[in-house]
Amino acid sequence: MLTLLTAMYLVVRSASTQAEPIRVVVTGAAGQIAYSLLYSIAKGDVFGKDQPIILVLLDIPPMLPVLDGVVMELQDCALPLLREVIPTDEVEVGFKDIDAAILVGSMPRKEGMERKDLLKANVAIFKTQGAALDKYAKKTVKVLVVGNPANTNCLIASKSAPSIPKENFSCLTRLDHNRASSQVAIRCGVSSDKVKNVIIWGNHSSTQYPDVHHAKVDLHGAEMGVYEAVKDEAWLRGDFISTVQLRGAAVIKSRKLSSAMSAAKAICDHMRDIWFGTKEGEFISMGVYAAGNSYGVPEDLIYSFPVQIKNKTWKIVDGLPINDFSRAKMDATAAELVEERDTALDFLSQ
Ligand SMILES: NC(=O)c1ccc[n+]([C@@H]2O[C@H](COP(=O)([O-])OP(=O)(O)OC[C@H]3O[C@@H](n4cnc5c(N)ncnc54)[C@H](O)[C@@H]3O)[C@@H](O)[C@H]2O)c1
Ligand SMILES: *[C@@H]1O[C@H](CO)[C@@H](O)[C@H](O)[C@H]1NC(C)=O
Ligand SMILES: *[C@@H]1O[C@H](CO)[C@@H](O)[C@H](O)[C@H]1NC(C)=O
Ligand SMILES: *[C@@H]1O[C@H](CO)[C@@H](O)[C@H](O)[C@H]1NC(C)=O
């Protein structure tokens, strides 16, 4: 009897050599970014081709009927890695035992809404979600904030989850990073993978500073600095920067909807790099807690820096030389974030 049980156990084990499923929550799961994002996650683009997944979809009560449709479509994709899909409007359910949380949902700006009221509404959302992560998620959870204002929402969520390390919170500036890489690649007539180490500094807004002073292009086998490859300083200091800064608005103007496909792709890039690390000798941009940075950025902020990731731990790339042109732009975007943080912290303490 015992041998039979052992044999059965071994059969079951060898049939399921796959890892235990991980639990991933996406908030704003009925929205347009999530619609592009969920498929990529569920088919293994982010956490690996052999990592089973339980997807938790969190949205607000009026969106539950829409979520049902999303659940149906995910089932209809017949994806082998997708073990379970759980739609919910409750944070207690949404954040339970979560390994990775992608916070896409936030309060959108409505007609005639004051900036302060918008911030206040978002502080309330990210306070609630941070507290729920603190209470229900795994302590090793990786939290990525996408919903705007992403940097400050991320800071509020982190402050509301004191038992989860601050390092486990980050916000998305990878879309800006990808936009900058692509602009340089198009200019040089190479594919985007030939461009590395662009940097987005600061807030995910039009004051962000896309910096290519440390970036490299592989120009038909010869690696060189971007300034050297592009040979057009006026463009690099002018239209290149403003194109990246204003890209979100340009997409909205043209599509009448904000970036969704490219945002979803950037979310996948960001989370996959957290999970598997960045390539040797390369860095990427993400909004992270600024404490201990070597660039004089105020400490208690979520600010976008160049980072390298290894063993699920990021490190800001320190000590890159910063010229006066860059300094002024890095300071301006920091000042914007400080102001927003101070207002948000007032709301948080109310
Ligand atoms: N950081 C970036 O690079 C970046 C890029 C693009 C978009 N964004 C931001 O991402 C967010 C989502 O964009 P979208 O196009 O998917 O918007 P969307 O309006 O299509 O979807 C947002 C979804 O979030 C839900 N939601 C709102 N409050 C919620 C809450 N408290 N809990 C759970 N769900 C909630 C809404 O019901 C909606 O289904 C926006 O804030 C947008 O500005 C950020
Ligand atoms: C910072 O960027 C976010 C995201 O674009 C934006 O909503 C916010 O208004 C910016 N902050 C300030 C103070 O301008
Ligand atoms: C990777 O991180 C884990 C958890 O923090 C730690 O236990 C382990 O020692 C680290 N491994 C390496 C090779 O740094
Ligand atoms: C998250 O926190 C854990 C400790 O709970 C740590 O080992 C890990 O490196 C952190 N992750 C990131 C991305 O910093």
Automatic annotation (TrEMBL):
According to the entry, every stretch annotated as the Lactate/malate dehydrogenase C-terminal domain falls at: 173-347
- Cite the binding residues for substrate: 109, 115, 148, 179
GO terms, molecular function: L-malate dehydrogenase (NAD+) activity
Could you tell me which InterPro entries the record lists for this protein?
L-lactate/malate_DH, Lactate/malate_DH_C, Lactate/malate_DH_N, Lactate_DH/Glyco_Ohase_4_C, Malate_DH_AS, Malate_DH_NAD-dep_euk, Malate_DH_type2, NAD(P)-bd_dom_sf
Write the signal peptide boundaries: 1-19
* Pfam families registered for this protein in UniProt: Ldh_1_C (PF02866), Ldh_1_N (PF00056)
Q: What is its EC number?
A: 1.1.1.37
Q: Which residues form the active site?
A: 204 (proton acceptor)
> Which reaction is catalysed here?
(S)-2-hydroxyglutarate + NAD(+) = 2-oxoglutarate + NADH + H(+); (S)-malate + NAD(+) = oxaloacetate + NADH + H(+)
Q: Name one GO biological process term.
A: tricarboxylic acid cycle
User: Where does the record place the Lactate/malate dehydrogenase N-terminal domain?
Assistant: 23-169
- Known role: Catalyzes the reduction of aromatic alpha-keto acids in the presence of NADH. Plays essential roles in the malate-aspartate shuttle and the tricarboxylic acid cycle, important in mitochondrial NADH supply for oxidative phosphorylation. Catalyzes the reduction of 2-oxoglutarate to 2-hydroxyglutarate, leading to elevated reactive oxygen species (ROS).
Q: What is the name of the protein in this document? A: Malate dehydrogenase
Q: Which organism is it from?
A: Takifugu rubripes
Question: What are the leading ranks of the lineage?
Answer: Eukaryota, Metazoa, Chordata, Craniata, Vertebrata
